[in-house]
């Protein structure tokens, strides 16, 4: 049965488990999005509509143990951004991707835990540390103690988003989500500046 989350070392995750995540988190969302755009344009004209994707912070910033969940969300981010650029503004279809961080839900207990690869079993390994935290804090009670967000409050923000006349392409939900993305953005900017000169003079030499 397809699941929305698989946790395990990237090297040890079976293809079937990884593909199951993509079936739900990527292809499921893609098919709904395609039908939503068609409906908004052809049957809900001229009102248009709002398409709000449930993505994740790991759709921009990866975490150990979540290689394929993150990959599916990265793919969804690319699809959603492209779709937002392709729809005609005259159709009045507003598209936003919501990127939550940690919220108190059953996603960890309903997900699939992949047996650990022996090479990653060292307790000092980042994957092993995250796995330990993942297993020990899988219950909703433990997630609450860690300070994960209240999903009811998250839904209120999404409802507020649906009422904005000019919504953004992306909305981060949760302090952890904001922190992760800001850190990633800073690193990306630093590395871009440091290696920008590598892109100079990459064209073919022209004989004069």
Strand arrangement across the biggest beta sheet: 2-3-5
Work out the number of β strands: 5
The N- to C-terminal Cα distance equals 64 Å
Q: What percentage of residues falls in helices of 4 or more residues?
A: 40-55%
State the order of secondary-structure elements, H for helix, E for strand: EHEHEHEHHHEH
Mean pLDDT: 89
The CATH architecture would be: 3-Layer(aba) Sandwich
The global form is globular
Superfamily (CATH H level) name: NAD(P)-binding Rossmann-like Domain
For the record, the CATH class is Alpha Beta
Biggest sheet character: 3 strands, parallel
Q: Which fold name is given in CATH as the topology? A: Rossmann fold
Notes on the structure:
- InterPro entries: NAD(P)-bd_dom_sf, Sc_DH/Rdtase_CS, SDR_fam, SDR_oxidoreductase.
- The protein is mainly alpha-helical.
- It has one domain: NAD(P)-binding Rossmann-like Domain (Rossmann fold).
- The protein is built from seven helices and five strands.
- The protein has helices at residues 15-42, 67-86, 107-110, 126-136, 140-145, 151-162, 175-195, and strands spanning 6-7, 49-54, 93-100, 112-113, 170-173.
- The strands form two sheets. The protein has a three-stranded parallel beta sheet, with helices on both faces. A two-stranded parallel ribbon has the order 1-4.
- The longest helix has 28 residues, at 15-42.
- The protein is globular.
- The model has no long low-confidence stretch (mean pLDDT 89).
Question: What's the arrangement of secondary structure elements?
Answer:
Elements: E1 6-7, H1 15-42, E2 49-54, H2 67-86, E3 93-100, H3 107-110, E4 112-113, H4 126-136, H5 140-145, H6 151-162, E5 170-173, H7 175-195
Parallel strand pairs: 1-4, 2-3, 3-5
Helix pairs in contact: 1-2
């Amino acid at each position: 049965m397809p699941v929305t989350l698989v946790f395990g070392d990237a090297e040890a995750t079976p293809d079937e488990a990884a593909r199951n995540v993509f079936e739900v988190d990527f292809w499921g969302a893609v098919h709904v999005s395609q039908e939503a755009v068609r409906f908004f344009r052809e049957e809900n004209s001229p009102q248009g509509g709002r398409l709000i994707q449930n993505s994740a912070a790991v759709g921009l910033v990866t975490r150990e143990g979540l290689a394929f969940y993150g990959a599916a969300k990265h793919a969804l981010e690319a699809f959603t951004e492209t779709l937002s650029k392709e729809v005609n503004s005259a159709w009045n279809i507003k598209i936003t991707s919501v990127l939550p961080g940690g919220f108190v839900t059953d996603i960890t207990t309903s997900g699939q835990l992949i047996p650990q690869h022996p090479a990653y079993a060292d307790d000092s390994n980042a994957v092993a540390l995250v796995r330990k935290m993942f297993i020990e804090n899988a219950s909703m009670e433990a997630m609450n103690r860690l300070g994960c967000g209240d999903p009811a409050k998250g839904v209120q923000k999404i409802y507020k988003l649906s009422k904005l006349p000019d919504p953004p392409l992306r909305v981060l939900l949760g302090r952890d989500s904001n922190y992760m993305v800001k850190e990633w953005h800073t690193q990306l900017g630093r590395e871009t500046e440091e290696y920008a000169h590598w892109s100079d003079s990459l064209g073919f030499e022209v004989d004069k």
